[in-house]
Design brief:
Layout (H helix, E strand, L loop, with lengths): L12 E3 L38 E10 L8 H9 L2 E6 L7 E6 L5 H9 L4 E8 L24 E2 L2 E2 L8 H5 L4 E11 L39 E2 L13 H10 L20 E8 L6 E2 L1 H13 L4 E4 L1 E2 L5 H9 L4 E5 L22 E7 L18 E4 L3 E4 L2 E7 L10 E5 L4 E3 L11 E3 L11 E5 L9 E13 L5 E7 L7 E6 L1 E3 L5 E5 L11 E7 L8 E12 L7 E4 L2 H18 L5 H10 L2 E2 L11 E2 L2 H5 L1
Parallel strand pairs: 8-10, 8-12, 9-10, 12-14, 14-15, 15-16
Antiparallel strand pairs: 1-11, 1-13, 2-4, 2-5, 3-4, 6-7, 17-30, 18-29, 19-22, 20-21, 21-29, 22-28, 23-26, 23-27, 23-29, 24-25, 24-28, 31-32
Helix pairs in contact: 4-7, 5-6, 7-8
């Protein structure tokens, strides 16, 4: 039941690369009929919709008696009815022959004719075998959530096979352009080279003529609709929606040899991504826009809807809109508050509707992510959501993980000039090399020292964001680490933000926006300046993975690592798209059941999510 509350006019919906929504639904599972034999997937008797990869014009037939005990003429006669024997496999499997069919005779017809004979044990297609479907996308080794060999990603080595078994699933299907996934988010950079081939197109609309050609109430909605700006511009300034979309369906196998591209691959290589913009450049939106976006996705044929967003307040209207779109499987994020949703609330995750799947996040060791919400009844399943590499609508203009010496890149100065690198960070879960103000110990009282980035060109760029991981032990409200920006190395410096107090959280990404006055600057510098008073001191600041990215263009450097249940959710949406590609007529109820019944059960998720498991793509499409 909804809680009584004095609601404000606008309920904020927040993108969840740092905080998301979660559900407490208890939808009943659909019944599975029993007693009727079903043809195997790929069986030529399964009907026209069953995918089958066959060696054209060939079958395998096993006679009930091996050649040495059966009249040679009788076997020849049987084979001659459908074709001719081209290889005897009798020494391996007694009675087995490989048969090439007569021209014009289908595999299905030959199998039926042969199996009607009393001297034939069975006949079957000669199925094609392929090498494992590993795409040539050069950054796949960094995408541990798809294929985890224990590789080091951003200084963290994972546990082998703590992944969704994507390559194994790709041996069965890599998706279908007949499946549409709506991405209700901050927009999508549809021109990104990894996304452009898979973007949805409204073929009933003529682009740019100012006319609602298909009469759906939206003018020129050739590439989806922006419900924030009420226009057809679904581009993504925030970057969140593009990251989500590429995890679902970045085109696979498109890394051009010798072109120097560095691209990624989605869970579903082939899919149609429908951008529905419901969040603004800051990652915020309203329930009203989300409801309108849900209806738009439904009306435009979406099979799956990805909602990597959420809020704390119950809305009957939002619930009704999602339930009314019963032909869409809604995959939603559980939220990033680290809360048990048996007690806390987060929506739309907490809605009790049958076509909804709520997703928690796991790390590369198959442990529940520290930030992820959970709930033994309210959250359905988990998926990879920590340090997820995907495409971005933003250009990375600077990035440093401090694994190599800073000399020649960073400048340092002030009193005392002590900034440098260290691997000794005073929290147990901090790994790798960090930049710190005082590598040898606590910072001295009254000091004023700094570390400055090299020059960055922001030409043609805007909406720039600084991301970093930090551990801080700074006297609260008296000592400060200041992040400053300037267009000249000598200043003047503009204070962007300050950090103070104790923050022992090394793996959460902190994000700060640069002032708009730096948009388009020919050059810009950042510096971290420790500025304590003359009383008390602390262990100082430790910084890692400092990145500056801006909107304005996409290209080979438009990729980013993000963490959150927002990043876990599209893994599940991608698997749902593979299931739909494999079984085009599957219902939303059966699709949900297939997703949840094919998980890898993990001790770390027992009692934390309803299935007790992390999604497994290979099992889901088998």
């Amino acid at each position: 039941m909804p809680k009584p509350a004095a609601l404000t006019a606008l309920l904020v919906v927040t993108a969840c690369a740092g905080a998301v929504a979660a559900p407490a639904h208890a939808a009943s599972s659909p019944r599975v009929s029993e007693g009727q034999a079903q043809p195997r997937a790929g069986d030529p008797r399964a009907g026209a919709d069953a995918p089958a990869e066959l060696v054209a014009g060939e079958v395998l037939v096993r006679f009930r008696q091996p050649a040495r005990s059966q009249a040679h003429g009788a076997r020849q006669s049987a084979v001659a009815e459908v074709g001719r024997a081209v290889q005897s496999l009798d020494a391996i499997v007694p009675g087995l022959e490989r048969v090439a069919l007569e021209p014009g005779l289908s595999v299905a017809e030959a199998v039926a004719e042969l199996e009607a004979r009393s001297d034939v044990a069975y006949a079957e297609p000669n199925y094609a075998v392929h090498a494992a479907a590993i795409p040539n996308d050069s950054r796949l080794p960094e995408m541990w959530g798809l294929h985890n060999t224990g590789q080091d990603v951003r200084g963290v080595a994972g546990r082998p096979d703590a992944d969704i078994d994507a390559p194994e699933a790709w041996n069965v299907t890599t998706g279908s352009a007949a499946v549409t996934v709506a991405v209700l988010d901050s927009g999508v950079a549809g021109g990104h080279p990894d996304l452009a081939p898979n973007m949805w197109v409204n073929t009933g609309e003529v682009a740019g003529n100012g006319v609602d050609d298909d009469g759906n109430g939206f003018v020129d909605d050739r590439r989806g609709w922006d419900f924030v700006g009420d226009d057809n511009d679904t581009s993504d300034e925030q970057g969140h929606g593009t990251h989500v979309a590429a995890t679902i369906g970045a085109r696979g196998g498109n890394d051009a040899p010798g072109a120097g591209t560095t691209d990624v691959v989605g869970v579903a290589w082939d899919v149609r991504l429908l951008p529905v913009r419901v969040l603004d450049a800051a990652g915020e939106g309203s329930y009203a826009d989300l409801i309108a976006g849900i209806d738009y996705a439904r009306r435009n044929g979406a099979h799956i809807g990805n909602l990597s967003l959420g809020a704390r307040y119950y809305s009957q209207a939002l619930r009704d809109a999602m339930a009314a779109a019963s032909g869409v499987t809604w995959v939603v994020a559980a939220g990033n508050d680290g809360s048990d949703l048996e007690w806390a609330e987060h929506y739309p995750c907490d809605f009790d509707i049958a076509n909804l799947v709520c997703v928690a996040a796991t790390d590369s060791d198959d442990e529940l992510a520290r930030f992820s919400n959970y709930g033994r009844r309210s959250v359905d399943v988990a998926a990879p959501g920590v340090d997820i590499l995907s495409a971005s609508s933003r250009t990375t203009v600077f990035s440093d993980d401090f694994e190599t010496p800073i000399e020649g890149r960073w400048a340092t100065g002030g009193t005392p000039d002590t900034w440098g690198r260290t691997t000794s960070v005073p929290v147990w879960d901090a790994t790798g090399t960090w930049l710190t103000d005082s590598p040898s110990g606590r910072y001295p009282d009254g000091s004023d020292n700094w570390a400055r980035t090299p020059a960055m060109s922001l030409r043609g760029l805007h909406s720039c964001v600084v991301q970093l991981r930090g551990v801080f032990d700074i006297e609260s409200w008296f000592d400060f680490l200041r992040l400053e920006a300037a267009t000249d190395a000598a200043g003047p410096w503009t204070e962007v933000t300050t950090f103070t107090g104790y923050w022992p959280v090394p793996n959460e990404v902190l994000e700060v926006r640069l002032p708009t006055s730096f948009d388009g600057a020919d050059q810009a510098f950042l510096r971290f300046r420790l500025n304590p008073d003359d009383q008390y001191d602390g262990d100082g600041a430790y910084l890692d993975d400092v990145t500056v990215s801006c909107a304005g263009r996409t290209g080979a450097d438009s990729y980013a690592y993000l963490s959150g249940t927002s990043m876990a959710t599209p893994h599940v949406s991608g698997v749902a798209a593979l299931i739909k590609a494999r079984n085009p007529h599957i219902s939303t109820a059966a699709l949900r059941t297939k997703l949840l019944s094919s998980v890898d059960r993990k001790p770390s998720l027992t009692g934390r999510v309803a299935t007790g498991g992390r999604i497994n793509a290979a099992r889901a499409v088998s």
